[in-house]
Design goal:
The chain is mainly α. Strand 4 and strand 5 form a beta hairpin. The chain has 18 helices and five strands. Helix 1 packs antiparallel against helix 13 and helix 5 runs antiparallel to helix 6.
Length: 425
Amino acid sequence: MFTEMFYSTVNQALFSMKKLLSSVLPSAVSFGPPGPKPSGFLTITDSRTSRKYEIPIHRNAVEAIRFKEIRAPKDYHHPADKPEGGLRLLDQGFQNTAVMASQVTFVDGIEGSIRYRDISITDLVGKKRFEDVTFLLIWGHLPSQQEMENYRKDLAAAMVPPQMVSDVIQSFPSTTPLVTMVIAGLSAWAGSDATVIPAYMGKNIYQGNLALVDKQIIRVLSALGTVVALAYCRLTQRAFTPADPNGSFIENMLVMMAFVDSVTGKPDPKHVDCLERLWVLYADHELTNSTAAFLHVASTLADPFTCSIASIAAAYGPLHGGAIETAFKTIQDVGKPENVPKLIEDVKAKKFRLFGYGHRIYKTVDPRSVFIRELLDEFYDEKADGGFLAVALEIDRMASKDKYFTSRQLKANADLYGSFVYMAL
């Protein structure tokens, strides 16, 4: 399960970093305030007071703050309701609330498509490198050749862990969950330079300081990759290998974790290509729970490491990034394809929750799962996995034909197959 946790850690936390720009410098990545001309109005009549209100609609959204204008006399029997302070909107779980306007990613759950900076992932997967896409997401455009060379070198140069970070990781037993070590390692890395922690410095050091923001984005991305590698080496009791100053981010991840050819000392190009494509797929997914956690902490003007740690902690839950690990453990427990019918019946009887199937956003096939299946066709060795992929395929086959799942528009998502790509490597 080490590779599955590596996946869920990196992919859920790595790109929440770009959201720092949204909270520090909103104009850099957001649409900004609504335009002067609304597309329509929401007309409300409050039956408590018979008053009417008109709230402008911009881009199919209304500003929640305008509902504070809808007031009623104080309710002395229910003082906590505070009607005199304006109407409040209750949205448990952010089911229908937008907390920011962004130009970063657009996910269409009905059509089943994902666009990064208005570029379809079909035009990026296998055609652009992982670093190209991270640059695109963070800075808003695909990098020039010189920008890419500088970006790659800066990332590699920052992949040098302070000794205290290595010591912290080594202090854990080798049976410790990877995410626990990653959080501790990042905390130690943050503590290695207190001058970039606003509260410690007693002032806001990021707002309006793009140069420092950019530098810390590089530092956090590199630190996260390095700490994940250190934690993985601790779990597998491998020796950590320093990053190659000329290597790409993915090449260095594999180098640091000792996934290299025994003769050349370099990663297998096929493995690099596989991860390049896979990580582009998971580069961003709009306002996920972990991204919201990052933004929540960033709104206090906390440092990037603290924000990232909060994001990783949120991502580890089984209803988010931890779903990869949970789904795979379910497949392990099922064991054989012939045991799948009982699993399906238990799910329908609400005795069991099926992770890896259904998605809060997608009402059609998760577009990422299509690319993952292609990767499996290229890299997967059925003999090496103990038959677990056959279990996953049987779950997908049976569920896709069962009215319980089809009537609810539940389909396989990326979590069902994600871990198998890592097993294939």
